[in-house]
Design a protein that fits this description.
PA_domain, 7-stranded mixed beta barrel, Herpes Virus-1, metal-binding, zinc-finger, 3-stranded antiparallel beta sheet, binds zinc ion, 2 domains
Length: 287
């Protein structure tokens, strides 16, 4: 049952990760950078938002705490966390004519949801937060383009998921879960099977003797291998189990290592100590 629980937890986590993240997509390269939409300001629309991503032209204004001269039309501000509150940055970028603001963390990797206390109804542009790696990558990329690069901000809605993501969740998750359960089951089966068999090196250490008909104590003595049902003939190699029962070495070795670790006659577990009545003959033998 524990494997079921693990699978369900993984599935839920996978779903949560997909549900709570939106993304910045670089239109030219189709690269996707996971982001998180702020708790204030308008939501991203169904079709997303397309604009030219630009850090403020003046390096000192990289925190975006003050309005700047619009560097281009339809621009999305790429600014750094720190110096002032998130909502102050977004307000300043709104005033600077930005369509949206992407706030990135330069020092720590991890997504946060940007909150703002008080009334934020004056915030009319959406804003998203990107973690350190995404921020650095976007910053680098925006510098490498000659023209300001076009980005699309997509919303964190199941409806905007790419088909592949949908397929992953709907088809692959149950498939992975089934595979996991199957492998666990196989492993347990194998372990159980292993516990039912005697180790080969243990079996080969059990005593053997050569059969001699004249040495048999009585006529009644068992002179047949209970596994292959053949009578013993002189020079046959017999193996003696801890319970004193004897069989052809080849017959009993195969039985113990591939079938069951119990004596075929008295069912004694050969890996355990010899039974108290080991010297007694079983009714089957003396019959
Ligand atoms: Zn035999
Ligand atoms: Zn036995």
């Amino acid at each position: 049952m524990s494997s079921w629980r693990v699978c369900i937890t993984l599935l839920v986590l996978f779903t949560i990760v997909h549900l709570t993240h939106a993304a910045v997509i670089v239109v030219a390269t189709n690269e996707t950078y996971i982001d998180r939409v702020a708790a204030f300001g308008p939501r991203l629309t169904e079709e997303g938002l397309v604009g030219r991503l630009l850090p403020p032209s003046d390096e000192e204004e990289r925190y975006g705490c003050h309005p700047v001269t619009p560097p281009t039309e339809n621009w999305v501000a790429l600014i750094e966390r720190g110096e002032c509150s998130f909502v102050d940055k977004v307000r300043a970028m709104q005033e600077s004519g930005a369509l949206a603001a992407v706030v990135g963390d330069k020092h720590y990797n991890g997504w946060i949801t940007m909150y703002a206390p008080g009334d934020t109804s004056d915030v009319l542009i959406p804003s998203v937060f990107v973690a350190q790696h995404q921020y650095q990558a976007l910053l680098q990329l925006s510098k490498s383009f000659r023209e300001p690069m076009l980005v699309r901000l997509v919303k964190d809605d199941m409806l905007t998921w790419p088909l592949l993501d949908m397929l992953l969740v709907v088809v692959l998750s149950p498939a992975v879960m089934m595979l996991f359960i199957y492998l666990t089951w196989r492993l347990r089966q194998r372990q159980r099977r292993k516990n039912e068999l005697a180790p080969t090196d243990f079996v080969t250490k059990l005593p053997v003797r050569k059969f001699r008909r004249e040495k048999q104590q009585s006529q009644d003595d068992h002179a047949e291998c209970a596994i292959c049902l053949e009578d013993y003939v002189d020079d046959d190699i017999l193996r003696t189990l801890p319970c004193r029962h004897e069989f052809h070495t080849t017959c009993v070795d195969a039985w113990l290592t591939t079938h069951k670790k119990f004596c075929p006659i008295c069912k004694h577990d050969i890996c355990r100590k010899a039974p108290e009545s080991s010297t007694e003959r079983t009714p089957l033998l003396s019959a």
